[in-house]
Amino acid sequence: MQNKINVGLIGAGTVGGGTYKILKENFLEIFRKTGKEITIFALAEKDLKRAKEVVDAKTIIYEDAFDLVQDKNIHIVVELIGGTGISKDLVEEAIKNNKHIVTANKALIAMHGEELVSLANKHNVNLSYEAAVAGGIPIIKSTREGLAANKIEWIVGILNGTTNYILTEMKENNLTFDVALKQAQELGFAEADPTFDIEGVDAGHKITILASIAFGIPINFKATHIEGISNLEQKDIMYAEELGYKIKLLGITKCINDLVEQRVHPTLIPKSRLVANVDGAMNAVLVHGDKVGPTLYYGAGAGSEPTASSVVADIIDLARNIESNNTNSIPILGFIKNEIKAKKILSIEDITSEFYIRLSMKNESGVLAKITQVFSEHSISIDAMVQKEIQEDDEVVDIILVTSNMIEKEMNKIIDEIEALPENIDKAVKLRIEQLNS
Ligand code: HSE
After folding, report:
1. Active site annotation includes 206
2. Which residue out of 197, 279, 309 has the highest number of ligand 1 atoms within 8 Å of its CB and is therefore the one to mutate?
């Protein structure tokens, strides 16, 4: 009887420390759920001082993680160093040594998931990645297992705690972008390279993974359209508010008539939606299944113990099934191997959306008429239009428009024509709107 499960932990950072703590503090609770004694048998960490602060004297410490992945006593390797360089080599080596893998590494799964899943299947080991998407929210399990009866139609989520924290602090507490980012870093939410958060790459990794398990398509990060929040201006947050919207960095994936959308960008959503009121570093994911309708998941998307909660849940799943050699009864990406089929992923120009447009124009009579004329020549209706005088410069006005649903390339043509008007002062701001009402 396999009563003892030995875990090899790679990385004693924020999530590594949380994982060790949960397995220790909840040891008995976890034993009651598994009948197994699960412990961190070994830790690989280059910084020996840090390693000794995190684990007790009984835990073996390896300075070289390649020694850990070859240790015959270890059943499960937990990769928590992040990135796609050495972590990929370590995960591959661990799989080749027949270890089950648990990882919180969204970049690794989004960029190399296909090859790692194949390798894991070849060696009949599991590759678990619950913590890679939305931290402590069990969104992989919910989508892949809880909603398995459904054809998933779309998923929309606030998937990055750092940017949600920044947007909240900018709006509620008037903090500047830089100060809010610094705070998020101090709280341990931000990536080692915070441009991954700010520029939407981290949310892009996560929505790419969700698209794969939702629609049974290969993981294809390159096809994901990504825009971050670094160019977002405070005044657009305010104007959106006046129009009844909040701006959130959303990951969006849809499958309509076998055409897939995978995109991350700042998005206006009606203030009345639950997701619009998810603030701070919290995450929320809306999953729409054809039979269940909309379902909503909310929780901490980053941080030590919330993320480690998902890591440990994956370890528990494996521990429960190791003995019966049944660890791969659930396909790693939710669909059986031969049924994972590529679908066309739409380029951003081909998606349909409502738009918020801010134009910067000379404050002259007849300007509004010229703008509406361009829209009417393209047979596009304007749902709302507001003109704002700019305090520092009464020669310039901001004109904000909300359009009806239209194809983005049509929107781009309209913007080009308006920017060519002699009254146009600056580049137009274009943001997409999601009503989230179905
Ligand atoms: N940097 C990520 C975030 C951490 O801010 O959400 C969790 O993946």
Report:
1. yes
2. 197
190 C-alpha vs ligand 1 centroid, how far in Å? 6
Q: Which atom of ligand 1 is nearest to the CA of 190?
A: 1
pTM: 0.96
Nearest Cα residue to 421 out of 376, 333, 362: 362
**CATH H-level superfamily of 349-433:** ACT domain (3.30.70.260)
| 191 Cα nearest atom in ligand 1 | 1
Which of 189, 193, 207, 248, when mutated, tests ligand 1's pocket best, judged by the most ligand atoms within 8 Å of its CB? Answer: 189
* Cα separation, 250 vs 158, whole angstroms: 5
Q: Which atom of ligand 1 is nearest to the CA of 133?
A: 8
Hunting for tokens 């002062």 — which residue is that?
Answer: 425
User: What is the b/e burial string over 61-98, where b = at least 16 CB atoms within 10 angstroms of the residue's CB?
Assistant: bbeebeebbbbeebbbbbbbbbeeeebbebbbbbbebe
Pick 143-300's CATH classification: 3.30.360.10, 2.60.40.1120, 1.10.12.10, 2.40.280.10.
3.30.360.10
Residue of 130, 182, 202, 248 to mutate, ligand 1, most atoms within 8 A of C-beta: 202
Please state, in angstroms and rounded to a whole number, the distance separating the CA atoms of residues 126 and 302. 24
335-359 residue pLDDT tens: 999 999 999 999 999 999 999 999 9
Ligand 1 nearest-atom number relative to CA 184: 5
Distance 134 CA to ligand 1 centre (A): 8
- The confidence band for 5, taking pLDDT boundaries of 50, 70 and 90, is very high
Give the span between the Cα atoms of 401 and 382, in whole angstroms. 7
- Rounded distance between C-alpha atoms, residue 33 and residue 125, angstroms: 22
| Euclidean distance between CA atoms 313 and 336, whole angstroms | 23
198 phi and psi angles, rounded to 5 deg: -65, -40
Query: What's the confidence (pLDDT) of residue 1?
Result: 67
Residue-range domain boundaries for the chain: 4-136+304-337, 143-300, 349-433
Query: 4-136+304-337: which CATH topology?
Result: Rossmann fold (3.40.50)
Question: Catalytic: which of 206, 246, 248, 254?
Answer: 206
Does 234 have pLDDT greater than 90? no
Is 70 exceeded by the pLDDT of residue 311? yes
Report residues whose beta carbon is within 6 angstroms of any ligand 1 atom: 135, 160-162, 189-191, 197, 202, 301-302
Domains 143-300 and 349-433 share a fold: no
What pLDDT score was predicted for residue 171? 87
